[in-house]
Write a structure and sequence with these properties.
The structure holds two protein chains of two kinds. Chain A is of the alpha+beta class. Chain A has six domains: 2-39 and 159-185, Phenylalanyl-tRNA Synthetase, Chain B, domain 1 (2-Layer Sandwich); 46-155, Nucleic acid-binding proteins (OB fold (Dihydrolipoamide Acetyltransferase, E2P), Beta Barrel); 203-399, 3-Layer(bba) Sandwich (Phenylalanyl-tRNA Synthetase, Chain B, domain 3), CATH 3.50.40.10; 409-476, Phenylalanyl-tRNA Synthetase, Chain B, domain 1; 493-688, BirA Bifunctional Protein, domain 2, CATH 3.30.930.10; 705-790, Ferrodoxin-fold anticodon-binding domain (Alpha-Beta Plaits). A seven-stranded mixed β-sheet of chain A has the order 28-31-34-38-37-36-35, with helices on both faces. In chain A, a hairpin with a 4-residue loop joins strand 4 (59-68) and strand 5 (73-78). In chain A, helix 13 (493-507) packs across helix 16 (615-629). Chain A is elongated. The N and C termini of chain A lie far apart (89 Å). Chain B has one domain. Chain B is 27% helix and 26% strand. Chain B has five helices and four strands; from the N terminus they run αβββαβααα. Chain B is globular and about 50 Å long. The chains are: A alpha+beta, B alpha+beta. The interface between A and B is medium-sized, with 39 and 26 residues. The complex binds zinc ion. Zinc ion binds at residues 35, 37-38, 42-43, 45-46, 50 of chain B.
C-alpha cells in the first residue's frame, strides 16, 4: 500500500521525521519497503503566474511567456500548447536538475537561446518534475497555489511503500495506518467526518437486497444516491488517488476508490436505473452463465463464483469486477452504492481463475471486517453529496446474515508474563490497547479488551500479547538464555550411516549432488519403468507433480547436464529418499545411496589410467563401502534391463538383494543424451546399517603365506563364483581378484582371472609345500566345477 | 537467537528483532542482522536497508501446540527457522538461489 504522508496527516499528527516513523512502523511489523520523496529534488522550482503570452518573433510554434514569481518577472520560451494568462504553473530557473521530457534522463537546466531569444528557465510538465508520464503540456497548478512559493510546499509529498502481512488487511487503508501511527507515537486519531445530509423517500421504499448464499456473503449494505453529477473529481481527490497509484476516472468511481483507500472497504457503484425490479440478488453463478465485465470481456462463469444479480441476470462478479450493463456512465443520475463483505477464498479463487486480481479483490481475499460496510457507505455518501451534488436517500439497505457478537477478550499480567517473560503494569497494557482503538474495561486483576472492529486478527491471548510486544518494541524485551536440561537422544543409526556414506563417497572422489524429490511422471519413467508414484493433489507445475520412486533419472539427468557443460570424467552421488506408496499406510520412504560415473577416470584417480569408468569402478566403490562399514556383500548377476546385459550385478547382503550396479543400457543412456559408458549403482541405506561392534580375533603369531593363481575360464563364468570357491579353501584368509584378461594368446570366449590368496594357520607356520597342496586341490575342484584351467 | 545469529554471521554483527507474521507462531519475529557488506550503511546486497533478514522465529502458535497434543495453557514453545539455502546464499554471497538446485559441478566444487 502506498501511503502518502500528506494524506495521512489528515488523520493523525506526524511528530517524527519520515525515516524515524518508517523505522518505527517497520519494527512493529508494518514494513516500510521504500520511501519516495516527491519534490526533494525541486530546489529552486517555484509557483509562477502566467502574466503575458507573446508570439515568438522567429518561430510559429513557440511563444514567449512572461511569468510572475511573486514580485519578480521572467520571460521564457516554450512550445507548450496549454498555457493561458492567469494560470499558476511550476517554474524552474536555470540550474535546476530536471527530467528530460523526451528521453527520461535527468539533466541540469542550462541557459539557452531558443531561436535567438534567451530563456530564463522553463515551465514544467508533470514528467519533467518526476510526477508521472504526462508530457503533453505544462502542469497546471491549483488556482490558489501561492505565487512565488516553493513547488515542494504545494505538491511535495513523502510516500511510504508499506508491505502488509496477510493478517493485517486493516493496513490496506489510510485510517488503519493512522491508528498504527497513533499507537506508536502517542498522537490521537482524528477520524474523518461520516455524517451526511439525507433526502426522502428512503432507500427501503425502492431497493431490495436478497442474499441467497449467506456462506459466501456475510453482509450486503447499499445506499442510493440520486441526481449525481458525473464528471471530473476535484484536484485534491485526484491527487490522492494518484499518490496511491490509482487513476482518476469520474466522481462516482473516484469516491468508491477513495473510500476503499481510506477505510479498506472495497465498494462498487451501479447505475440504479439499469437494475431490473430494483432488486439485488447475491448468489452463486450458474454453470455456463455469462457476464460481460467492465473491461469488455465476455466471461463464462460457474458455480464456484459469486455474482451480484438482479432478478433477470448477473450484473457483477462479486468483489472482483462489475458488469458493463450496469456501469456508471455520463448519463447516469441515480447510483446504487454497494458495500459488502464477501467470502475471502471465493473471491481469491475467482480472481485467480479469471486473472482479474484488483485492489478490491486483494482486500476481500485477506478477510476484511464486515463492520466496515456502513462506515464506508457513510463516507461515500458524504463525499458524493459534497463533490457530485448527490441527494442521499435516507437509510441504508443492510442484509447481515454473518453477524457475530464480539466478546471482550480477557487479559492478565500473568498471560503477558507467560508468553513474553516480562511483567508489565496493567495500566501500560490498557493504554496500549486504547491507542490501537480498542475498548478496554478493568475487571479486578484482568482487562476485558474489545478489539476495534477493523482488527479481525486479535482473537487469542497470544494475539493480544503480540500487540503489547510490538508496540513496546521487540528490541525492548530482555534476552535470556535457555534454562533446563535437554534430554539425551541416541543418534539415529540410519542418519549416522547416511552421513558415513557421504564421507566415504567424498573421500573416494565423488561429488555430492541433491536433486528434487518431485518430478514428472514422464521423467520418472525415462530410465525404464519405475514403480507407480504418489501424485500431488495440487502440483505447482507438471514438472514437479509426483514423488520420485527412483533416483535413476535424476542422477542421469545431472550427469548429462554436466557433460553438456564440457565436464569430462564425472563421478557424482546422492543420498536421498524415494517414496513408495503402500496399501492403507503412509508411503515408505527408504533412503538410497546412488552414484553415477562417466568419462575418463583420470580426474578422481591419481593412479590415473585415463580409461573411461567401467563396471569395476562401480564394484570397487561398493566393495570399499562394504569394507568400511564392515558389512559382507556379495555380487550376483543382474538381469535388470536398466543395465547393459552382462555388465550388471545385484548386490546382496545375507542373500537379500540390497542394491544393484552396472553399466547403464545404451537405450537408456540415449534417452538422457549420454554418449559413452555410464556406470550407475544404488544401495538401500537401511541394509548397510551395521550397529555391531567388531569382536577381537586373536592375531596369529605365525606369518601369512601368499600365493597367486591365474585361471582361464569361459566368459560366462562369473568371477565372483570362482572367488567364493577359492575362499572356501582350508586356511584361506582372503581372496582378491587383481586382474581380468581377455585376448591373445587366450582363445575367443575365454578370460583369465588372477587372484591373490592369503593363507594362515592359527597354531603354526604353514610351509610353502603345504600351501601349494591346498592351492592345487582348489584348482582341481574348480576344473571340475567350472572347467577352469591354470593359465600356463 | 542473538547467540545463534552472532555465531553464524559473526560476533561483530548487530542483531535486531522485528515483529513479523508467520502463521505458525504468535508473536512472530523476524530476526535480522546488520549488513556485513556495507556495515549497515545500505548497499545493493541489503537492498539499501542496512539490515538482512536471516530467520523467522516466534512463540509456537497455541493451535500448533494443540494439534501436537500439548496443552497450550500449560506449555509455551519457542520456534525458529532459517532456510539452509538462505544462510549459505548470504554467507557465500551467492546471487542466485537456483544455483542450489541446478547441481552444476562447477558450482558444487567450490564448496566441497
Ligand atoms: Zn548492505
Amino acid at each position: 500500500m502506498k501511503v502518502s504522508l500528506n494524506w495521512l496527516r489528515e488523520y493523525v499528527r506526524l511528530t517524527l521525521p519520515a525515516e524515524e516513523l518508517a523505522h518505527k512502523l517497520t519494527m512493529a511489523g508494518d514494513e516500510v519497503e521504500s520511501i519516495q520523496r516527491i519534490g526533494s529534488d525541486w530546489d529552486g522550482v517555484v509557483v509562477a503566474e502566467v502574466v503575458r503570452i507573446d508570439p515568438h518573433p522567429n518561430a510559429d510554434r513557440l511563444v514567449l511567456v512572461t511569468v510572475d514569481l511573486g514580485g519578480r518577472q521572467q520571460t521564457i520560451v516554450t512550445g507548450a500548447p496549454n498555457l493561458a494568462v492567469g494560470q499558476r504553473v511550476p517554474f524552474a530557473p536555470v540550474g535546476t536538475p530536471l527530467i528530460d521530457g523526451a528521453t527520461g534522463e535527468r539533466k541540469t537546466l542550462k541557459l539557452a537561446k531558443i531561436r535567438g531569444i534567451e530563456s530564463a528557465g522553463m515551465v514544467c510538465s508533470a514528467k519533467e518534475l518526476g510526477l508521472g508520464d504526462d508530457h503533453s503540456g505544462i502542469l497546471i497548478l491549483p488556482a490558489d497555489a501561492p505565487v512565488g512559493a516553493p513547488l515542494a510546499d504545494v505538491l511535495g509529498d513523502t510516500i511510504f511503500d508499506l508491505k502488509t502481512t496477510p493478517n493485517r488487511p486493516d493496513l490496506l487503508s489510510m485510517l488503519g495506518v493512522a491508528w498504527e501511527v497513533s499507537a506508536l507515537t502517542g498522537q490521537p486519531v482524528q477520524p474523518p467526518p461520516f455524517d451526511h445530509p439525507v433526502s426522502q423517500p428512503p432507500i427501503a421504499e425502492r431497493v431490495t437486497v436478497r442474499i441467497e448464499d449467506p456462506d459466501l456473503c456475510g453482509r450486503y449494505s447499499a445506499a442510493l444516491v440520486r441526481g449525481v453529477r458525473i464528471g471530473q473529481s476535484p484536484e485534491w481527490l485526484q491527487k490522492r488517488l494518484q499518490a496511491a497509484g490509482m487513476r482518476p476516472i469520474n466522481t462516482v468511481v473516484d469516491v468508491t476508490n477513495y473510500v476503499m483507500l481510506e477505510l479498506g472497504q472495497p465498494m462498487h457503484a451501479f447505475d440504479a436505473a439499469t437494475i431490473a425490479h430494483n432488486t439485488i440478488v447475491v448468489r452463486r453463478a450458474r454453470d455456463g452463465e455469462r457476464l460481460t465485465t467492465l473491461d469488455g470481456v465476455a466471461r463464462e462463469l460457474d458455480r464456484s463464483m459469486l455474482v451480484i444479480a438482479d432478478p433477470d441476470r448477473a450484473i457483477a462478479l462479486a468483489g472482483v469486477m462489475g458488469g458493463i450493463d450496469t456501469e456508471v456512465t455520463e448519463q447516469t443520475t441515480d447510483v446504487l452504492l454497494e458495500s459488502a463483505n464477501f467470502h475471502n477464498y471465493t473471491i481469491r479463487r475467482t480472481a485467480n481463475r479469471l486473472r482479474m486480481r484488483s485492489e478490491a479483490s486483494l482486500r476481500f481475499e485477506k478477510g476484511i471486517s464486515p463492520e466496515l460496510t456502513i462506515p464506508a457507505l457513510q463516507r461515500a455518501c458524504r463525499l458524493l453529496a459534497e463533490i457530485a451534488g448527490g441527494q442521499i436517500a435516507a437509510g441504508f439497505v443492510d442484509e447481515y446474515p454473518g453477524r457475530a457478537p464480539v466478546e471482550p477478550r480477557p487479559l492478565t499480567s500473568a498471560d503477558v508474563e507467560r508468553v513474553l517473560g516480562i511483567t508489565w503494569p496493567l495500566e501500560r497494557i490498557e493504554s496500549i490497547f486504547r491507542s490501537l482503538g480498542a475498548e478496554v474495561r478493568r475487571d479486578g486483576e484482568r482487562l476485558l479488551i474489545t478489539p476495534p472492529y477493523w482488527r479481525r486478527d486479535l482473537n487469542l491471548t497470544e494475539d493480544l500479547v503480540e500487540e503489547i510486544a510490538r508496540i513496546i518494541g521487540y528490541d525492548e524485551l530482555p534476552a535470556t538464555h535457555l534454562r533446563g536440561e535437554i534430554p539425551a537422544t541416541p543418534p539415529d543409526p540410519l542418519l549416522v550411516t547416511s552421513e558415513r556414506l557421504r564421507d566415504l563417497m567424498v573421500a573416494a572422489g565423488l561429488q555430492e549432488v541433491i536433486t528434487y524429490p518431485l518430478v514428472s511422471r514422464e521423467f520418472l519413467n525415462r530410465a525404464g519403468p519405475a514403480p507407480e508414484p504418489i501424485a500431488l493433489l495440487n502440483p505447482m507445475t507438471m514438472d514437479q507433480s509426483v514423488l520420485r520412486t527412483s533416483l535413476r533419472p535424476s542422477l542421469l539427468k545431472t550427469l548429462a547436464e554436466n557433460v553438456r557443460r564440457q565436464e569430462d570424467g564425472l563421478a557424482i552421488f546422492e543420498v536421498g529418499s524415494i517414496y513408495l506408496p503402500r496399501e492403507s499406510d503412509l508411503p515408505d520412504e527408504p533412503p538410497l545411496l546412488a552414484f553415477a560415473l562417466t568419462g575418463p577416470r583420470g580426474r578422481s584417480s591419481w593412479l590415473g589410467t585415463n580409461e573411461p569408468y567401467d563396471f569395476f569402478d562401480g564394484k570397487g566403490i561398493v566393495e570399499a563401502i562394504a569394507e568400511r562399514l564392515r558389512v559382507a556383500l556379495d555380487f550376483t548377476r543382474s538381469t535388470d534391463p536398466f543395465y547393459h546385459p552382462g555388465r550388471a550385478a545385484e548386490v546382496r547382503r545375507e542373500g537379500d538383494v540390497i542394491g544393484t550396479l552396472g553399466e547403464v543400457a545404451p537405450d537408456i543412456c540415449a534417452a538422457f543424451d549420454l554418449a559413452g559408458r555410464v556406470v550407475y549403482g544404488e544401495l538401500y541405506v537401511r541394509a548397510l546399517v551395521n550397529e555391531t561392534l567388531p569382536v577381537y580375533q586373536p592375531v596369529s603369531r605365525y606369518p601369512d603365506v601368499v600365493q597367486d593363481v591365474a585361471l582361464v575360464v569361459d566368459e560366462a563364468v562369473e568371477a565372483e563364483k570362482i572367488r567364493a570357491a577359492l575362499a572356501s579353501g582350508r586356511f584361506v584368509q582372503e581372496v582378491r581378484l587383481f586382474d581380468v584378461y581377455r585376448g591373445e594368446p587366450l582363445p575367443a570366449g575365454k578370460k583369465s582371472l588372477a587372484f591373490t590368496l592369503r593363507f594362515r594357520a592359527p597354531d603354526r607356520t604353514l610351509t610353502e609345500d603345504e600351501v601349494s597342496r591346498i592351492r592345487n586341490g582348489l584348482v582341481e575342484r574348480l576344473a571340475r566345477q567350472f572347467g577352469a584351467s591354470l593359465r600356463g | 537467537m542473538y547467540t545463534f545469529a552472532k555465531r553464524i554471521f559473526g560476533e561483530r554483527r548487530r542483531v535486531r528483532f522485528r515483529c513479523d507474521y508467520f502463521p505458525f507462531v504468535e508473536p512472530g519475529v523476524d530476526v535480522g542482522v546488520d549488513c556485513w557488506v556495507c556495515e549497515g550503511a545500505g548497499c545493493s546486497f541489503c537492498k539499501r536497508s542496512g539490515w538482512i533478514e536471516v530467520m523467522g522465529a516466534g512463540m509456537v502458535h497455541p493451535r500448533v501446540l494443540e494439534y501436537a497434543g500439548i496443552d497450550p495453557k500449560r506449555y509455551t514453545g519457542f520456534a525458529f527457522g532459517g532456510g539452509v539455502e538462505r544462510f549459505n546464499l548470504l554467507l557465500h554471497r551467492i546471487d542466485d538461489i537456483r544455483l542450489f538446485y541446478g547441481n552444476d559441478i562447477r558450482f558444487l566444487r567450490q564448496f566441497a
